[in-house]
Amino acid sequence: xxxxxxxxxxxxxxxxxxxLCGSLGSCTSMDVFGGSDKVDRSISTSSIPSKPKAGDPxxxxxxxxxxxxxxxxxKVGANPLPWANSATGSAGVVSSIHExxxxxxxxxxxxxxxxxxxxISLFSxxxxxxxxxxxxxxxxxxx
Length: 143
Prior knowledge:
Elements: H1 9-29, H2 56-70, H3 73-76, E1 81-85, E2 90-100, E3 107-116, E4 119-129, E5 135-142
Organism: Rhizobium soli
Keywords: Signal
Signal peptide: 1-21
């Protein structure tokens, strides 16, 4: 009579581990995913600046000045006047504009909000027309 030895549980586990390690090892050594020369390195992370640029508040001030000085007060009346600055991401609403000529120059006093990454703020300001016809922001103060 011929006897064959059967494999016990421990031997089967060892054979399974060797087979598994061998197959996984060969996958990592082969160029399965096309190689490192085909990695897309054009994608950049952290492309949003962590701090606003130094000139950003002046840019918002110029945007508000342009909104206030270009508004047709006869049409706007007491309605809110929205503004947005695509360069800084800030936006706001001019809630009041009052025109005054008492100082000899045409001036517009206004109140506006500013919604930015720094939070929401309320400002009061004044823009006056210069002798050359340009508008100049003479006040822009946080409330």
